[in-house]
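Structure, all two chains, one model.
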Amino acid sequence: MTGINRRRALTLAGVGAAGVAGAAAVAATKFKGDSEGTPEAVPFSGQHQAGIVTPAQDRLHFVAFDVVTKDRDRLIRMLKEWTAAAARMTAGQDAGEIGAVNGIPEAPPDDTGEALDLPPAWLTLTIGFGPGLFQRFGLSAKRPPALEELPRFTGDTLDAAISGGDICVQACANDPQVAVHAIRNLARIGMGAVSVRWSQLGFGRTSSTTTGQTTPRNLFGFKDGTRNLKAEQPDLLREHLWVQPGDGPDWMAGGSYLVSRKIRMIIETWDRSSLAEQEMIIGRRKGSGAPLGSDDEFEEPDFTAVGADGTELIAKTSHVRLAHPDTNAGARMLRRGYNFVDGSDGLGRLNAGLFFIAYQRDPRTAFIPVQRSLAANDEMNEYVRHVSSALFACPPGITAPDDYWGSALFS
Amino acid sequence: MRTTPLAVTAVAALGLTLTACGSSDATSETKTGPIAVAATDTACEVAKTAVDAGTNVFAITNKGQKVTEFYVYAAGDRVMAEVENIAPGLSRNLHVELPAGTYETACKPGMIGKGIRGQLTVSGSAAPLTDDAALLAATESYSRYVKSQTGALEEKTTEFVTAVKAGKADEAKALFPIARTYWERIEPVAEIFGDLDPRIDGREEVTEEGLTFGGFHRIEKDLWETKDISKSGPIADQLLTDVKEVVQKANAEKLSPLQLANGAKALLDEVAAGKITGEEDRYSHTDLWDFNANIEGSKAAIASLRPVLEERDPALVKTLDTEFTNVDTTLAKHRSGDAWKLHTDLSQADLKELSDAINALAEPISQVAAVVAKQA
């Protein structure tokens, strides 16, 4: 900006119409072409929202908002502003049309600036709507039956302050600063319409969503999500992940339901348990990730195999058996969780665990039965506490330049 | 990636601007760009010592090891503008409207002392913003408001100090939030006068080494926590002296329209940072009096600017009206007769609701300065 004096900068704002129109034109062009050709950018528009089957990025910033405005038009205006900002940020641009440093000196910048000079880092922004939203704004008739508040599960120690929410945004990127920047700017744009209810950072993916990715490990040290749904399985995705026409209200067709659970792991006691006990609890080898009784991570677990003493190799109370589709009427989900460490708890322990995220076509036949099964019998429960829970309906993707997040819901 | 489209936009806009202006040359551009300030722990190198009247932008880079501040002082160390808390390695910009005259610049490595001073001469007669008749009317209107508040401030502080010195603790406790109301309404104006604000309103932890913790909050501590005001007399006397000085200076101060706009925002920042958390009045818990006073002061500054804003951005005025009403309604839930509930009587949910209301108002208020600065 050297060389532009204030009077010019002001005049610039004075003819702002032209300047803004110019910037808008850039954004629009960018939108139509999406982020095609921009290195490290995930296309924002498409039949489904990005950030679900997109190869799981390394970092997460997840946020849940309460809607504080009572004005339906105000909420819609914000969703439009969010959509435009999300399209820009996922393409590696500033959140606002003017940007972090090019505005007039007297105005606060319309981008907060911490992502300047950073690449898009595969940023995806995925929005979802919580059950509470449908009690207001004349939306009750559009509430999908699948969007029931989750039931209480045995052992739940949920903190209401970090559970639920009217709207969620999942930001995933390979650079944590890019993910945080995106959430921060959306929160700012939303002020007056929404208020941050809770948010969660995740530092390492615990799932692979494509066959090209290796299976990562959670903080128990085990590979997680070996049998996850993958982007390369279109038939399975149709059956288990994407809401199909006729499943419920039309506006959700092509969308998916997101369940989030913050699962605190009592890692200090876990770390004192023997390798044999750990493997028995999970039902897999810690090194290879292979089901007990096998050498190959991706081999189907054999739940009938017994050892020399006649007991099952994979225990009845093991995690892998209780979570398996065969135990749950074929239920499957696309898991997309992240490890977290939120500092320490003042008792000499790390406040660590798994921020579990799962996408599914219908939680009533996926997450709910699986979690019931786990909550009742999983040996792992001794080492985990579910402290936060939320459910959101994530609409289909943006498909037209004038489309916005939630357009079909509010139309 | 991120910078390319921005640069393109900037250049395109500049192109438009040049065309619109009709004339320009490269030298005048470079002459009036940001003034670089290289701050270290031992030096404060300001790129220019003579500038044109009007709004000037200083770009301060802290190349030292200590956190620093940068000030522009008029005669008598009157703060024209300041930027605080510049961490080592960081750069910050400071915008200041300067009429012709002689000034001093100062870097304060370690944020203490008189700082490293330099001369700054401002010449020419760039039309100040107040040339616009509506803006002039706005500043005059707000000056009248300031005078009305300073009068009450001096009067109520006198009563408060008298009660403290007479050992009348209950009377002093009742007067404490009331005297502070007049202070909190115009605090951004008081903040112009350097050390006076911390002396009058500083909290214990910001008292500089070697200085005594004094002012309103010291007496608050004596009243509510120590429960002993027998030795508070000298502190009370000093408070009144300082208040009288700030009153006299505030009444004489000529404010710019930009200061009104920034003051309206600064008052909300006060609420968001100190009152919501209860740290301002931590002994008496009378934070909601201050909260309300900050809102009233902010509203008064916006009210003075209203004709200008109505003219330039009626939609913004509508939003501000809505959000001010929302804050008032939310805050009114915590009235208790003629008084306010104590901060400690509010639940976390109450505080969250207030915080949301303040954020909803502060965002549009942060846009006011740009609207005021815009050429009519």
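Chain A touches chain B through 46 residues (CB under 8 Å).
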